[in-house]
Design goal:
- By secondary structure, the protein is mostly helical.
- Helices cover 56% and strands 0% of the residues.
- It has 14 helices and no strands.
- The longest helix is centred in the middle third of the chain and has 22 residues.
- The protein starts with a helix and ends with a helix.
- About 12% of the residues have low confidence.
């Protein structure tokens, strides 16, 4: 079994993988953000980058230009120059390493929301908008899939108490989601990258819950399919300052970050059958 703590040291010693994503990825990710968010951050950049009339599209362009400059500067900086930024980062970095310092510096420049958008890795296998999101068509977690995973992390599939819900059948997952306000479900879906946003009818509570349930399940399967190194790279692009304890712990952090605490907390709660509630 791979020591995930030792592997963590290797991963954070390198530049974060999201620093070298295609330029189109950053442009699409920034365009997905609300205009108010992008324009506010753009106005905090040096004046040379900010146009006089800062519309959504112009703010995206100036943010992208500034980020590309930072990308080139940070990627080429020797360690002594890179680590000199450490003292100016007002964040609880777990280590003075390439990944942590670059992540912290970028977050200091652009704020948490924009940085999370730039850092986001989304696998192409995640939700196809053309999929049928009616409850009867949502696949459950497949035991055969689990048996085909990398043996180095099969033991991580033995669920910790807080992650038992990740093994729920699709219909039970929907039952949990239906306990939430419709507005919370729609908001969570709306915060997903638009290019990977599941198809659904906004007014249909049932379809919204089915679409979000499908997305969450596919994300869980995606994380479980990764080898330990790829898993850490993916996780640290979402929660770069996490200290590794176990795969299950890190998966929980990612799910809370990507789908919100209220959604995950709801999914963690057991559903008490009506007969048992009447007995209480």
């Amino acid at each position: 079994m791979v020591d995930i703590g030792a592997l963590y040291v290797t991963v954070v010693s390198d530049d974060p993988s999201w620093l070298y994503l295609p330029k189109d990825h950053y442009a699409t990710s920034l365009t997905d953000l609300p205009a108010s968010v992008v324009i506010e951050v753009a106005h905090q950049l040096p004046l040379a980058f900010v146009p006089k009339k800062c519309t959504h599209s112009k703010a995206v362009k100036c943010l992208l230009l500034h980020f590309c400059c930072m990308q080139a500067e940070l990627g080429a900086a020797p360690d002594e120059v890179l680590f000199s930024h450490f003292s100016s980062i007002d964040l609880p970095l777990p280590s003075v390493s390439h990944l942590c310092v670059i992540s912290g510096y970028i977050q200091m420049l652009y704020g948490e929301v924009v940085t999370a958008t730039l850092c986001r890795h989304y696998n192409d296998l995640l939700v196809d908008p053309a999929l049928n999101h009616e409850p009867d068509h949502i696949s459950s977690l497949d035991p055969d899939h689990i048996s085909n995973l990398d043996p180095d992390h099969v033991s991580s599939l033995v669920p910790e108490p807080d992650l038992l819900w990740t093994f729920l059948p699709a219909k039970e997952l929907m039952q949990h989601l239906e306990k939430l306000d419709h507005a919370d479900i729609v908001k969570c879906i709306g915060n997903l990258p638009h290019s990977h946003c599941p198809g659904y009818t906004h007014r249909s509570r049932r379809q919204c819950c089915a679409a979000l349930g499908q997305h969450i399940q596919q994300r869980i399967l995606h994380l479980r399919s990764l080898g330990d190194y790829e898993f850490l790279v993916n996780v640290l692009s979402v929660v770069p300052f996490a200290v590794p304890r176990s795969r299950a712990y890190l998966m929980s952090l990612v799910l809370h970050q990507e789908y919100s605490m209220s959604i995950v907390n709801c999914l963690e709660r057991p559903i008490v059958p009506l007969l048992e509630r009447r007995k209480q």
